[in-house]
Amino acid sequence: MDNDKPWLKSYPPGMPAEIDVNAYASVTEVFTEATSRFATRPAFRNLGTTIDFATLERMTQQFAAWLVHEAKLVKGDRVAIMMPNLLQYPVAVFGALRAGMVVVNTNPLYTERELAHQLKDSGAKAIVVVELFANVVEKVIADTAVETVVVTRVGDLLDFPKSLLVNTVMKYVKKVVPPFSLPGHHRFRDVLARGESLPASDATLGHQDLAFLQYTGGTTGVAKGAMLTHGNMVANIMQASTWISTIDLEDGEEIIVTALPMYHIFSLTANCLVFMKLGAMNLLITNPRDIPAFVKELSKVPFTVVTGVNTLFVALMNDDGFAKLDFSELKTTLGGGMAVQKVVAERWKEMTGDTLIEAYGLTETSPAACMNPMNSEGFTDSIGLPICSTEVSIRDPDNATVPTGEPGELCIRGPQVMKGYWQRPEETAKAIDENGWLHTGDVATLDERGYVKIVDRLKDMILVSGFNVYPNEIEGVVVGLPGVLEVGAIGVPDTHSGEAVKVVIVKKDPALTEEMVKAHCKEELTGYKRPKIVQFVDELPKTNVGKILRRELREL
Prior knowledge:
Strand order of the largest sheet: 2-1-11-10-12-13-14-15-16
Strand content: 15-25%
Helix content: 25-40%
Oligomer: single chain
Largest sheet: 9 strands, mixed
């Protein structure tokens, strides 16, 4: 037994310490194996239309051929994809990857400034955009390297006549399609039709080739492109699929609920790639903010797996219709992207009968790095164990290992760690040390069983009279008060103590008062950790996947 890897002794029986990183040469190889193995099985379902693996394979081939022969793109060119969860998304992504392009996942809700930065920084030569956001592309395209624009309508891949109906209603009834002018742009359906008569164009790919330029949220400043290679992605697909193999998943039979946008790394790897390898059907939710419509979609299919973030689980459980759903087929629920709160995990178990398994990852780790064992009986108050072929180390500011149980910076090493930041060697050197350890910026502890617990972000830590206060802990306490829907905790300047704790709360019960919050915290928290300031708001600022933006909370 390796004493430096205490987590191995806590691994479920039969779980290997290492995975075979060379099982596949590329993400494309994982894709083509799945499409041939599960050809007749449903691959993706969205807005009432289902496409099977064979159809997906054919469409991606057409798209790849068009990119190479008509758009004249070459291996390594960057292709930006800017759309929510629609059937066109996997077609565009796997088509681009097959052709040897690098996919630049782009948040469709980006402002002009954010989009211009990403397109310029990545040097993208082409963009696939849903028409709802084509006007934003129009405003920035002149300053970028983009030469090819493919525009798709929301209903383009839906069955007829629904496709016509959806596209007509969106444009002429709801009037949600802003006018745009992109001379020479191509229509998505025309591209697929043209690609049908063109020769197949699958590129030869290996582990060193870039698959994705995945821009990190930019919560710490300017967004940087994490270079994720085919090797990184294959490793993480193998790591995650090996880890979840302890639950009774049946190849070609599972239905996974994909509400987080697939342009986000969690959903991209876990839902789109890992479960595609298993032949599962991805149920794509285009607008997860419309909770009643989301719950209605869930009522139509016997879903077996759900992934999400803490805020999404809260929103679902607060909808009256959710508790009435049939959870008899649900095998596992995976939470990541942000800390899962104990009260949320316990309520989820009570309502669905299923344990909410917490996992941890970063854009820079493709993303999975730590996961709780899939057979966990309940909330472990940790992010679990480093997954197969992954090492963790807790370091002090001098990069020395801290004693077991002491907090320090979480460092990660493994085949899923990114190649570096796109065209930012200095940033890469800051993030990955000479021994290959990625410094995450998260404060964590590692116990003697090998379980990792995130204490907080280094940058979010609040310093009260010399004492470290971690916002996650405060938020976990405050959300335990029945009248609280959501909460964010931050540090604010204080003349007496340097910083003081402030909580910003969205009420569930209108009768909730500042006094009630402070009384609750007095029972649960020691003096210096108690909030001095309580502010009530209608909603908290969040990222596209629902992670609370503490930086914006400070600006309130």
